[in-house]
UniProtKB/TrEMBL annotation:
InterPro entries: FKBP3, FKBP3_BTHB, PPIase_dom_sf, PPIase_FKBP_dom. It is an enzyme of class 5 (isomerase). This is peptidylprolyl isomerase. Residues 127-225 form the PPIase FKBP-type domain. It catalyses: [protein]-peptidylproline (omega=180) = [protein]-peptidylproline (omega=0). Its EC number is 5.2.1.8. It comes from Nematostella vectensis (Starlet sea anemone).
Length: 226
């Protein structure tokens, strides 16, 4: 067992300006057991404890240490070493959680082939209004939807009417929501979207899309409105 430390300060000194809060905290950190420091909320860094503790509380803890003989045992790590070990453990845990989070990030369920480069400046963020021209096909080449053909909707001027919607808000299939966030204004791309990010096992009977269909879209991002 380690030798009992001697009292460095009298009660009169503890209550005077001759002994600072940091002096008392330093003594406690060097001589008190970790359990004692934790119980009395003194197991933090010196500056932090000094900010949150009152002088009379520290003086009381100093006297309590000798009354209870709650001294550091021989071979017991210093508070600084224990705090460092706890910090290292917390950092290691955070790194592990971050790695695990990366591992669980879902792989994209679509492939994109750029047909025409965009301006590489105006990329949409979630919630931005985007305007798109598109042709949607099944894997066998059957067109199931488009706004580029003669039958597509046109505005009052007779121009083809783009599809306008807030991107990333679930207004279209997920494959579109995810892929459009990677496109810049003016870009045209071919998107091959797995059924999981399209219409899944139910398909879309109204558009004659069978269950579990991989869909191929030629999409042009005409405009991005912030």
């Amino acid at each position: 067992m380690a030798a009992e430390p001697t009292r460095e300060y009298t009660d009169e000194q503890l209550n005077s300006d001759a002994v600072s809060k940091k002096d008392i905290i330093k003594f406690l950190h060097e001589n008190a057991s970790f359990e004692f420091l934790k119980e009395n909320k003194l197991n933090g860094k010196l500056n932090n404890v000094a900010k949150t503790s009152k002088k009379d509380q520290l003086a009381a803890a100093y006297n309590k240490l000798f009354e209870e003989k709650a001294f550091k045992k021989e071979g017991e790590e210093s508070l600084e070493d224990q705090l460092k070990a706890m910090s290292d453990k917390a950092n290691a845990l955070a790194i592990t959680e971050k790695k695990n989070k990366k591992k669980t990030v879902e792989e994209p369920k679509y492939k994109k082939r750029i047909l025409k480069e965009g301006d590489k400046v105006s990329y949409p963020d979630k919630g931005d209004m985007v305007s798109c021209l598109y042709v949607g096909k099944l894997e066998d080449g059957t067109v199931f939807d488009t706004n580029r053909s003669d039958t597509a909707k046109r505005n009052k001027k007779g121009d083809i009417k783009p599809l306008i919607f807030p991107v990333g808000r679930g207004k279209v299939i997920r494959g579109w929501d995810e892929a459009l966030l990677t496109m810049s204004q003016g870009e045209k791309a071919e998107l091959t979207i797995d059924s999981e990010w399209a219409y899944g096992r139910k398909g879309f009977p109204d558009a004659k899309i069978p269950p579990f269909s991989t869909l191929i879209f030629e999409v042009e991002l005409v405009n991005v409105a912030k």
